[in-house]
Every structure is written in structure tokens, then in C-alpha cells.
């Protein structure tokens, strides 16, 4: 297609069809779009962060085979999302999709609830990045604040270099993970047996020695033990949020989603196997004085100097992961505020206004920095919230199948089957990750994920019925409103103007 002024005219026309002007610079390639999601999934961040949880909640067998099961169903979720992304390639992602697929009378409500879950979980996800490698709580909090500040500064003043950092991040994750695994396997004095890695089940969920496998069943432990895998394989919706900056968005965004899941699934399984085979002593690894089993594996295999090098690789990956989480978050917030869904939308309409999200991320992270139980609860909350925001538009795509108009990326006859399976999986993990993780259940071991999810549900529904339904009309047809002379950041003004763009024929 022809280009004019550096903008891909076909993509700009597609965006205009959905009612928006091209405001973001469209200069990302397919590989760079993939790179954002790949960097946010960041297996070298997610797996080490919950490696202790995995070793004690099901052990090696659940870590290895749970990863395979989770990767399979996550790919189904990704395929279903990719099909919808191809039909609606905008920065709004799931929030916008929900409004487009639902019937007009329910579109604003569907997009509102999806957007609330997306906002809440993006902040929760960002709050868990890079917080687990310093055993001193006070120092960790200081480091965490500095990391958040640096990531905010990069996204505020370094927008032009983000695509180059993206390229570095992709290679850092790919080569760094591969080099790390090869290094520890080659240097390990001994290796664990295949029986230990593929067949050993361990239940460390009992605070007083009685775990859930004894009180309930081993299946219960195995089910809650997949949190490590599911938490790691999140964030691939970033490819959708970056579509307004990507050439050939209707295909690139979809391929970015699917490819980031596939590559991460393979690389993550390789990393898990490498770490497990390199464990020298299970009890010493779990009870490491460093507070991190992965760090202990490094010390036992490559020594102190080598461990420092490998930790630098992981910390660098975590920094890239957090940086691009902020980037993706900003695009979603930009789209949500563009449609007037956030109070003070004229302020948040600018992409680089990220400091509120960074501040809230810092505040929400404080409990998890002091407690491993709070940390696993935070990861549960982030995982549940994110997948619910994925599941709403996929479920609407199943219910309103006759309203869905396919884009260039579609699944053919398998479309509804895959979408239905994806919805069932999301419903399953939403329940599972609300279950108690430690036995017995008390104020110190309670999984607070259900409380947090309930708060988001209560807020989104309560605020909708009390206030938002009176002024939030769903995604705003920006171009039409500007032609009408209406403030595009004030949906109430659009409603007063008659909002002809929200008639059924336009959805």
C-alpha cells in the first residue's frame, strides 16, 4: 500500500472506519509488535518470581506438565483474541472489542466492565515486576521505587527510543534465557534424574505439616500449582494495544499475540527444565538463605561470580518487562480516556501521563514486598483480572456470533470451538486462583485474591449504576464528534448532541 507522510494509509483508513484519527506514530513492524508482548510475558521474569511457589505447590511434576497444559489453553485464548484483534485493531484492545461485539444497548456496559478489569489488573501486574530479589524489605522498597521512576521516565521522555529498546529486549530475553540455561546445565556438578524432574510431586502447602494433598487431594495441589505458569503467560494483549502504532495492524497485532505465546511457551519450558535439572539439593534450594531458589541454583552451579552475571541477565529482563508493561498500560489508558471513561480524561488523554499508574503500582506493591503470601495473592489477582478482561469480549464473540465481522486473521470453522474453550478455561482459572493456597487457612495464609476481585466487581458495577451509565456511552466516534464540534473527552456532550454515531447501524 502507498504511504503518505510516513503513515500507512491503509491502516489510517481502517482506524478512521472505526471512528478514530491517527494520533500515535505508526512506525512499529510485526517483529516489534511481537516484541512488546514477548517482553511483557518475559518467562525469565515470571518463572523465577514464582519458582519457590512451584517447588512447594506440586513440585517439579506440576511445574513441568502444568506448563504444557497451561500453554495449550493459553494458546486457545490467544487465538480467540487474535481473531477479534484482527477485526478491531485499536489501542483499546479488549475494552473496545467488548463494545463492538455486544449489542448496542449493552455495548457501553460491556466495555466499561472490561475496561475496569483491564485498568485494575494492569496496575496489579506492574506492581509485581522486579520485586523479589532483595531479602531486605526496606532496601527492596527503595529499589522498587527507583525502578518504577526509571520506567516512568523512559515512557515519558524516551518514547522515540522505545522501539529500539524493544529490539534489545527481544534479543536480551531470547539469548539471555538460552545462555542462562546452557551455563547452569554445563557447570552443574551433578544433574537431577528424569524421575525427579518429570514425576516428582511435592506438597509443601501445609504450614503445620499437613498439606492440601492430605486434607483434600493431590489434584487440588496440582490445580493451584499452575499459577506459576498462568501468571507467566500473561500480557500478550500488549500486541493489541500497540496496533495503532503498527504497520498492517489487522494482521500484525494478531500474529504478535499468537507468536509471543508460542515462543514464550517453548522458551519457558526450556527454562523450567534447565533449572530443575540443575538443582543440587532440593531442601537447600527451597530453604536458601538468599530467599530465592533460583539464586541458590546459580550459586550451586556457576559460583558467586557466575551467579551475579546470571542475576544481571534476569534483572535486565525484569526491567524491560516492567518498562513495556508501562508502555502497554499507557496505550490502554490512552484509549480508555480518549472515550471519556476515566474522570479527568482530558488529562489522561496524553500518552505520557503515566505517573498516577506508577504511584498506584508502588502503593499496591508494598504488602507483597513484605510477604510471600501477599506476593502470590498479588500474582493471582493480576492473573484473574487480566484473563477476565480477555474473557469478556471472547464470550461476547460466542454469544453474538452473528454480529462478529471477521478480519483478515480468522480461525474458520474452528473459530467458535476455540473461543468457547478459551472462555471455559478463563472461568476455570478465575475460580482456581481464588482458592486457599496454604493450610490451615487463617489471617496470615488467606488468599486475598477473591477480596480484590470482589472490590473491582463492586466498583465497576456500582459506579456504573450510580454514575457512569448516565455519561459513559462506550467508545466514542472521534472523527464524527469533531465534525459535530463536540468535546471528544466528554461523552456526556456526545449524548446531549444526540450521538448519531451510536445508532445500531454503526456498530
From TrEMBL:
- Which InterPro entries does the annotation name? AA/rel_permease1, Amino_acid_permease_CS
Localization annotation: Membrane
Q: What is its main location?
A: membrane
Q: Which UniProt keywords apply?
A: Membrane, Transmembrane, Transmembrane helix, Transport
Which is a Pfam family this sequence falls into? AA_permease_2
Q: Which GO terms describe its biological process?
A: amino acid transport
Show the coiled coil region(s).
none
* Source organism superkingdom: Eukaryota
Topology of this chain in the membrane: Multi-pass membrane protein
Q: Does the keyword Membrane apply?
A: yes
Recorded GO MF terms? transmembrane transporter activity
**Transmembrane annotation, as ranges:** 30-52, 64-85, 106-129, 141-158, 170-188, 219-238, 250-279, 308-330, 351-369, 375-399, 411-433, 445-466
Q: Could you name the Gene Ontology cellular component terms for this entry? A: membrane
Indicate what this protein is called per its UniProt record: APC amino acid permease
Annotated organism of origin = Lactarius akahatsu
Amino acid at each position: 500500500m502507498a504511504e503518505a507522510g510516513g503513515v500507512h494509509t491503509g491502516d489510517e483508513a481502517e482506524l478512521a472506519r472505526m471512528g478514530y484519527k491517527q494520533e500515535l506514530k505508526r512506525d512499529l513492524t510485526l517483529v516489534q509488535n511481537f516484541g512488546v508482548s514477548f517482553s511483557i510475558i518475559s518467562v525469565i521474569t515470571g518463572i523465577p518470581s514464582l519458582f519457590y511457589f512451584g517447588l512447594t505447590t506440586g513440585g517439579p511434576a506440576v511445574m513441568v506438565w502444568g506448563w504444557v497444559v497451561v500453554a495449550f489453553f493459553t494458546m486457545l485464548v490467544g487465538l480467540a483474541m487474535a481473531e477479534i484483534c484482527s477485526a478491531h485493531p485499536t489501542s483499546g484492545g479488549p475494552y473496545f472489542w467488548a463494545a463492538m461485539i455486544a449489542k448496542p444497548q449493552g455495548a457501553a456496559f460491556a466495555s466499561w466492565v472490561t475496561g475496569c478489569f483491564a485498568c485494575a489488573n494492569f496496575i496489579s501486574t506492574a506492581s509485581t515486576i522486579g520485586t523479589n530479589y532483595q531479602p531486605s524489605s526496606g532496601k527492596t522498597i527503595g529499589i522498587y521505587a527507583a525502578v518504577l521512576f526509571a520506567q516512568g521516565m523512559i515512557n515519558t521522555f524516551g518514547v522515540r527510543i522505545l522501539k529500539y529498546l524493544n529490539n534489545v529486549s527481544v534479543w536480551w530475553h531470547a539469548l539471555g534465557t538460552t545462555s542462562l540455561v546452557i551455563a547452569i546445565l554445563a557447570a552443574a556438578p551433578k544433574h537431577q534424574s528424569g524421575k525427579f524432574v518429570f514425576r516428582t510431586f511435592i506438597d509443601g502447602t501445609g504450614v503445620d505439616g499437613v498439606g492440601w494433598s492430605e486434607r483434600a487431594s493431590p489434584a487440588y495441589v496440582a490445580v493451584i500449582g499452575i499459577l506459576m505458569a498462568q501468571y507467566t503467560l500473561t500480557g500478550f494483549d500488549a500486541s493489541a494495544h500497540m496496533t495503532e502504532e503498527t504497520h498492517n495492524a489487522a494482521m500484525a497485532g494478531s500474529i504478535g499475540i499468537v507468536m509471543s505465546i508460542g515462543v514464550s511457551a517453548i522458551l519457558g519450558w526450556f527454562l523450567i527444565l534447565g533449572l530443575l535439572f540443575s538443582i543440587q539439593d532440593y531442601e537447600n534450594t527451597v530453604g536458601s538463605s538468599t530467599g530465592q531458589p533460583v539464586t541458590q541454583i546459580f550459586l550451586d552451579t556457576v559460583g558467586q561470580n557466575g551467579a551475579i552475571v546470571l542475576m544481571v541477565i534476569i534483572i535486565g529482563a525484569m526491567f524491560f518487562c516492567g518498562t513495556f508493561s508501562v508502555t502497554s498500560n499507557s496505550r490502554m489508558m490512552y484509549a480508555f480516556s480518549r472515550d471519556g471513561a476515566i474522570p479527568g480524561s482530558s488529562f489522561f488523554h496524553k500518552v505520557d501521563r503515566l505517573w498516577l499508574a506508577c504511584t498506584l503500582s508502588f502503593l499496591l506493591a508494598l504488602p507483597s514486598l513484605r510477604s510471600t503470601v501477599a506476593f502470590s495473592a498479588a500474582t493471582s489477582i493480576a492473573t484473574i483480572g487480566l484473563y477476565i478482561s480477555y474473557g469478556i469480549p471472547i464470550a461476547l464473540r460466542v454469544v453474538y456470533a452473528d454480529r462478529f465481522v471477521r478480519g483478515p486473521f480468522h480461525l474458520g470453522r474452528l473459530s467458535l470451538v476455540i473461543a468457547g474453550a478459551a472462555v471455559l478455561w478463563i472461568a476455570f482459572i478465575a475460580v482456581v486462583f481464588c482458592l486457599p493456597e496454604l493450610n490451615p487457612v487463617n489471617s496470615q495464609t488467606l488468599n486475598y485474591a477473591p477480596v480484590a476481585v470482589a472490590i473491582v466487581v463492586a466498583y465497576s458495577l456500582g459506579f456504573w449504576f450510580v454514575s457512569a451509565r448516565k455519561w459513559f456511552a462506550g467508545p466514542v466516534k472521534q472523527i464524527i464528534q469533531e465534525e459535530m464540534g463536540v468535546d471528544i473527552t466528554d461523552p456526556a456532550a456526545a449524548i446531549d448532541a444526540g450521538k448519531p454515531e451510536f445508532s445500531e447501524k454503526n456498530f
